[in-house]
Amino acid sequence: MEKLQWYVAQAPFMTDAIKEQIEGLDQETFIPLLKAGESSEGKKNKSRMLTFNYVFIRGERHRIEDDIRFIPRLHLLYHRPGVALGKSYGNYERKPMTVPDREMNMFRRLVSLYQNGAPIADVEQPEIQQGDEVRIIDGPFKGIEGHLVTTKGKKGGKVVVSVSNLVAVTTLDIKPEYLQVINFSGNGKHHYRIMDKFQPLIEAAWNKQLNAISLTTEERATLERFVNSYSDVTGNTINTESRHKTLIFMALAALGLHDLALKHYRHLEKELITKLKSEKVKQFVEQHLAQYHNIHSHNI
Description:
By secondary structure, this protein is α+β, with helices and mostly antiparallel strands. The protein has helices at 16-23, 61-68, 101-112, 189-210, 217-230, 238-254, 258-272, 279-296; strands at residues 5-10, 28-30, 54-59, 75-76, 98-99, 120-122, 133-136, 145-149, 158-163, 167-170, 179-183. The protein has 8 helices and 11 strands.
């Protein structure tokens, strides 16, 4: 039995009759609507029924191919340009485009949050760029994961959920405190900047908890923001990840969240520290694990 998957189809034009035929298939289908907007002159633009006439159909490939033969000019999209039109490239096997269930579920959920159709864009548009991978942790878009698109001079930003590099749907602007980073974009420089920014603040709070000095409200808020925003991040190298997880561990300990701090302590001690290449990072990790052990050895 073939695996059920989401396949991507497209038609050169779309009518109500074709839409009804698609929705009448004995398969699960999804047709994302395009939101009607306004021009800069305030005139209402004519909306299109479908985003770039893409249709998503879930089922077995051979059944979908059989069913859509009866729908005018609707065809599956293939990974190689021109293959969907019947052209061949030597021994190249035609492979239709598919979308993972999780990615499709995220896309459908985000589209459903817009009552009048979602603001969907072509992923080639310049404002749709791959930034940090984030999760929204509060508000109406809670649970949505995608890539952050920021505006210069503003905190937070929109979260873009893309489907197989075909289309993308964006959230409204999300407050920075509602965003949790899953992965940093690029070559890790952004990750280093974040750690360099927070490390002096975390170390100051760490030293306070070692000396049983209470944190200020502002210090607690800073630590909570760091933990909430970056606790799920993994580094692109073992050294980066170890430094990052140590900072999370230190912030949790300074906040008095010792059950969570102990989990990070054990992970650092048993899994990360033995793999470290950098002596500098190793000393940083060992120093803070030892300091914590001296105070909380009865709990470890």
